[in-house]
Amino acid sequence: MKTFDELYAELAERARSRPEGSGTVAALDAGVHAQGKKVLEEAGEVWIAAEHESDERLAEEVSQLLYRVQVLLLGRGVPLEDVYRYL
Ligand SMILES: N=c1c2ncn([C@@H]3O[C@H](COP(=O)(O)OP(=O)(O)OP(=O)(O)O)[C@@H](O)[C@H]3O)c2ncn1[C@@H]1O[C@H](COP(=O)(O)O)[C@@H](O)[C@H]1O
Fold first, then answer.
1. What range defines the domain where residue 79 resides?
2. Per the structure, how many domains does the chain have?
3. Which of 10, 45, 51, 59 has its CA 20 to 30 A from that of 67?
């Protein structure tokens, strides 16, 4: 189990150390266009899960959306603090 902030710190460390086999490193290298498409794809899956699937599936899809949003932010170099200013 990890929090949103802990995941971001973990992904930032992946971006820094670039370990072999990291999906995050591959997603960052794919660029902002691919990252944005993943955000949209996962948002659609969240919508479908909310309308038609179980609470567990919804939670899983939301976790994937949050991950994809974090990859997008990391790719742009935007820290979570910049997002939190608007919450
Ligand atoms: N939370 C996540 C996470 N959520 C989603 N995903 C990725 O998103 C995929 C699921 O999304 P899709 O529905 O698009 O599935 P898919 O089409 O089969 O996946 P792709 O072939 O498109 O990658 C998963 O298979 C993962 O590749 C994640 N990948 C990594 N994390 C966490 O990020 C951290 C770093 O991971 P690595 O960079 O892989 O070491 C670890 O703590 C991981 O648990």
1. 4-85
2. 1
3. 51
pLDDT of residue 59: 98
CATH number of the domain that residue 54 is part of: 1.10.287.1080
Q: What is the pTM of this model?
A: 0.94
Verify whether ligand 1 is closer than 6 Å to residue 70 (CB atom): no
Q: Judge if the beta carbon of residue 22 lies within 6 A of ligand 1.
A: yes
**Is the distance from the beta carbon of residue 6 to the nearest atom of ligand 1 less than 6 Å?**
no
The set of residues, in sequence order, having a beta carbon less than 8 Å from that of 49 and lying 6+ positions away, is 57, 58, 60, 61
What is the predicted pLDDT for the residue at 12?
A: 98
Which ligand 1 atom is nearest residue 63's CA? 4
Our answer on whether the CB atom of 67 is closer than 6 Å to any ligand 1 atom is yes
